[in-house]
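dude i think i finally got it to work??
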Amino acid sequence: MQFCHKSATICAVLNFPCYNLKIMNAYIRNEKLAAWLKGAGKSTSEASKLLAELAYTTEAMIRQWASGRRKMSADSAGRVESAMNLFSAITLHSPQPLTRGDLCEACRECPYHNHLQNK
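look at this
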């Protein structure tokens, strides 16, 4: 057994990934989504509530994606992207809608998405 290099927890095997919760739960905030919600022209809770309704998800999921507690799937990124376009059409003062690549790491690395962005 070996001690984790970041804390005093013991890792089971040398090549086994460390399951120290303090290391694993280092949340990476989705800054673009959080900034979009702040600039949506309403309060953040009102914007996230309307966006959640349009994206067929819950307000809690929108907040968790923005805070980085959960990562957005490609399917969810597509729904949120469409919802942002609808949000822009409904409200007069909304920021530029984000793309799937701005919302989801898997979409950002997808060759199809990159091909569409380069057109």
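Residues 27-117 form one domain.
im so relieved honestly
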